[in-house]
């Protein structure tokens, strides 16, 4: 059973897609990256929904979620918003899959809401970025700053951005171009992005990351130009219970570029963790 709907959570309209698998014991919650949406998981979801209950969320202000200028777009608040949605759906335990910026929100959930999130799967996760500079934050208070944001994104261009995030440029087609462009055809998103620049705290510190106890699988593209492999290696070192897999001939957009491999690695990781848990329980 599949459905997509919007629900008001913490004062904002939250869009999510729910792929219910009544035979599955595990729920996977998917969080996309910056300037993206659930669209980026469209090749991965059909594979995952065979084995899991899957929920893909459009993080505000992206995709089909609300774009209010009075919502707080900090990672901590976005993490709490995701957990609130899960509670409202009666889901008490889930595994969190985060791509890029979504990985940073996933780690916030693993740190601050560990009762709910059992395991983390981080796909080219953002890591160790500082807060926006003070001049940038102050600029966000200038009237019409959102027009500068819009101009900057239009100038860099969707096609150019996609060429930066995928290894094999031949996979960039019209569906992909339109899917990543469509959220930016309305002005509201740019006003909300201005607020996101203002509210975004820095990524979790090394000390905070070391407090995460949940098992984590890190999947990286060897040729990731956005979040280089060295970030994956540092996260692997700082996350107590983690393993890192590097995919060859792959860029930053691993859910698009290597959905079958990502699906296989997630299955392998969850099975291995369940076996280890069962063994640990059996030995007590």
UniProtKB/TrEMBL annotation:
**The keyword Cell membrane is assigned to this record:** no
Q: Which Pfam families match?
A: Abhydrolase_1
This protein's GO CC annotations: membrane
Q: Where is the AB hydrolase-1 domain?
A: 27-259
Set out the biological process GO terms recorded for this chain's protein: acylglycerol catabolic process
Give UniProt keywords alphabetically.
Answer: Hydrolase
TM regions (residue ranges): none
The keyword DNA-binding is assigned to this record: no
- GO function term, MF aspect, one: monoacylglycerol lipase activity
Q: Which protein are we looking at? A: Hydrolase
């Amino acid at each position: 059973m599949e459905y997509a709907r919007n629900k008001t959570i913490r004062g904002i309209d939250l869009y999510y897609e729910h792929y219910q698998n009544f035979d599955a014991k595990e729920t996977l919650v998917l969080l996309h990256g910056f300037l993206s949406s659930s669209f980026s998981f469209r090749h991965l979801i059909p594979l995952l929904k065979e084995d899991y209950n899957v929920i893909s969320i459009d993080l505000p202000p992206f995709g089909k979620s609300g774009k209010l200028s009075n919502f707080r777009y900090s990672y901590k608040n976005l993490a709490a918003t995701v957990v609130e949605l899960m509670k409202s759906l009666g889901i008490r335990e889930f595994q969190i899959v985060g791509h890029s910026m979504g990985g940073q929100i996933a780690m916030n959930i693993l740190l601050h809401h560990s009762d709910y999130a059992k395991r983390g799967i981080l796909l080219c996760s953002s890591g160790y970025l500082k807060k926006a500079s003070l001049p940038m934050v102050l600029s966000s208070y200038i009237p019409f700053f959102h027009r500068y944001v819009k101009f900057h994104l239009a100038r860099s261009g969707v096609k150019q951005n996609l060429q930066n995030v995928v290894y094999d440029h031949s996979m960039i087609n019209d569906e992909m171009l339109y899917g990543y462009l469509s959220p930016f055809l309305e002005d509201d998103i740019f006003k909300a992005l201005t607020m996101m620049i203002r509210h975004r705290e820095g990524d979790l510190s090394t000390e905070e990351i070391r407090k995460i106890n949940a098992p984590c699988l890190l999947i990286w593209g060897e040729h990731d130009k956005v979040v280089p492999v060295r970030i994956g290696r540092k996260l692997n070192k700082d996350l107590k219970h983690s393993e890192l897999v590097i995919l060859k001939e792959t860029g930053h957009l691993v859910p698009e570029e290597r959905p079958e491999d990502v699906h296989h690695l997630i299955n392998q990781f969850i099975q291995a963790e369940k076996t280890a848990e069962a063994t640990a329980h059996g030995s007590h």
